Amino acid sequence: MFTSNLANKLTSVFQKTLEEEPLGGASLALYHRGEKIFSAYGGWKDAAATQPWEADTITLIWSAGKGVGAACLLHALQENKISLEERVSKFWPEFAQAGKENITIAQLLSHRAGLAVLNQKGFSLTDHELIVKALAAQAPNWTLDGGHGYGARTFGYLIDELLRRITGTPSLAQYWRTQFADPLQLDLWFGIPEDLISKTADVIPAKTAPPSSEFGAAYTDHASLTRRAFMEPGGNFSTLAMNQPALRQASIISSGAISSADALAKFYSILATQDDTRFFSKTTRHSMETPLTFGRDRVLMAETFFSAGFMMSGNLNIFPTPRSFGHPGAGGAVGFAIPEHELGFAFLPNAMHHGVFSSPRTQRLVEVLMNGSKS
Question: What CATH number corresponds to the domain at position 287?
């Protein structure tokens, strides 16, 4: 799939993106079977355009970290020989409250557990113990009839707590470092060390009004499932708050991962490599690229497809091939695997664009890969 022509097209589109974006910068990477085959970066780390984006710059990737967190849980399940069809409450007994005793791990990972919204308010993003206690106690947000709804903020706490219960590890963040990040030398963090703060690009909020959409209309309704899913836990806060050192150093699985494009693309290329069983078995890898649910998402107000913790394209065309899986992040960040070609891809900007799936600049890069996958 990868040719000099594809490299030239990626370079051209990436440079056009930097030229069109008056603020910020970005990094882009493509890896094949764990080896770098393309990498680019440019622009600025800060809104004042005084600090150039460098080769080792890292940035907040928002929900693009959810796929990494899901991979950690899948690995823990594999290593402990636990089926996706096991009940969550077998390992997390308190979870069996309020009608949730039969919810399976597969349902939890594919956003079918009815826990898109934390009903109790007043928690900060770092109140893990209080948040998971509240989630365990509450009833599902809807009757569990097979429908699904994206847990924009709750998902990370749920998979983090389940992994802790299964493995005895203090946190998913620590599991990530010991099992993957350190062995593979990946500059991706759920809570960065203090000495890496200076390497981190600033989050730059979108400067334009969001386009009209059904999701946007639902988001403005404070009583809607959509609005509530994106508000709790943590309440309503400016994206600028994520520039605070305390939040950069905190382990926030759903929306707080900080990474380089190289690290995210390399990891997804490992997931895409079909005969690499160092970390994942073929059975586990199959669960990553097999849809567990699809249809209209109660939160995102669009048809979405989810495997065991990963988003898939379906008819959204947010990834380049039918088997591709990964996760987008707010503002245009994205990371995904292309199993058909054993590739991992990541694009990570720091200047936000509107949307939860893919911004136009991100989609242009994906379309280059779509065309390349057909050659």
Answer: 3.40.710.10
